[in-house]
Amino acid sequence: MAVSPNEHYVTTIDKDNEPTCWGCGLQLVLPSYTPTFKCGWCGAITSLNLQKHESKWFKWRRLRDRCFVCVLFGFMGFVICGGVWAVHPVVFSISYFCGIFHLVITICLSVSTLSMFCLAAFHCPGASPLVLWGSYPLVGKGELENYTFCHYCSKPKSPRTHHCRSCGMCVLDMDHHCPFIGNCVGAANHRYFILFLISAVVSTIYVAIMSVTAGLHIWSPLSIRSHAPANVVGTDLAMRLVKEIIFALLNSALLMSSRGLLLVYLFVSSISVNLGLSVLLWQQLFYIYEGKTYLSHLNSQGGDGADQKDCQNILRFFGCPYSVSRYLPVVRDSEKRHTK
User: Any residues with CB less than 8 A from the CB of 288 and at least 6 apart, and which?
Assistant: First the structure.
């Protein structure tokens, strides 16, 4: 059937199918109701969900974080002061030079741990970059590519930004929210957080070693019976010796002074804290080695894993120059990848 050039097809468009892009303010015509769409001009992603508000538990989460920070500050202060009081008199009694040497190490580790903790806890984790948005003449083509609109902060959110409901702000390159520092770990304080973990792990190892060293000098001598029945041999003899050693340790612990009991507590607590921090530090360094954060690792599960894994990611994270990183080996996936 022939169509004359004067004929026109007229159709009506429902206003519900003409949503407005938050990035450039242009109206888009959609074929049907779409809760999420991407603007063809600026590249912003718009969601038609209703505006969200902060949870009523926001203040309680902030109070919880502040309590954790105060408890952790108190614990670190107790370990530092208690360690100096319990260990250094014993160390100075061995040698004056040895006492001065260990006092300098204690001061350096204490200052580095406390300073890195303060920087990680009270430094801004990293805000989302400021961009122009909302008006077509101001926003150029593709300037808001894959940006979304944060309904909590009521401002644009870059693809690398995540909103933390505990801090009440959008954080750039957010790794996770740590209640023990009362802050998010993001682009601006991630390095301080890793340095705090390294300093804390080294400090707890040092505390454990010095507690054992000082404890051996003040521990009461063990009273173990040297004779054993002639008919007890093998496994029974070994179990009897172990029981006698345990009872001798308990008896000597009852006669131990307050300094000795504090050394035992410092050793047990430092080993326990060291185990937890070492696992967390290894996990953090592994994600940095992969070029990811914890949240990006969760979002990329099930993907093709195309990110490059090498030691240069760790050196770039700590700000080392390329002249140093180029001498380190590069590990790449052996799987062949085909590109179109």
Answer: 194, 313, 314, 317
In contact, 252 and 233? CB cutoff 8 Å: no
The yes-or-no verdict on residue 268 having pLDDT over 80 is yes
φ/ψ bin of 239: left (φ > 0), alpha (ψ from -120 to 50), beta (otherwise):
alpha
Structure tokens at 216: 């051996």
Predicted local confidence at residue 296, as pLDDT: 80
For the stretch 220-250, pLDDT in tens is 555 555 555 555 555 766 777 677 666 666 6
The whole-model pTM stands at 0.78
Query: Which residue, chain included where needed, has tokens 């360094």?
Result: 285
pLDDT digits (tens, 9 = 90+) for 291-323: 888 888 777 654 444 466 777 878 888 877 655
SS (H, E, C) the chain: CCCCCCCCCCCCCCHHHCCECCCCCCECCCCCCCCEEECCCCCCEEECCCCCCCCCCHHHHHHHHHHHHHHHHHHHHHHHHHHHHHHHHHHHHHCHHHHHHHHHHHHHHHHHHHHHHHHHHHCCCCECCCCCCCCCCCCCCCCCCCCEEECCCCEEECCCEEEECCCCEEEECCCEEECCCCEEECCCCHHHHHHHHHHHHHHHHHHHHHHHHHHHHHCCCCCCCCCCCCCCCCHHHHHHHHHHHHHHHHHHHHCCCHHHHHHHHHHHHHHHHHHHHHHHHHHHHHHHHCCCCHHHHHHCCCCCCCCCEECHHHHHHCCCCHHHHCCCCEECCCCCCCCC
Task: Kindly list the catalytic residues.
Answer: 178
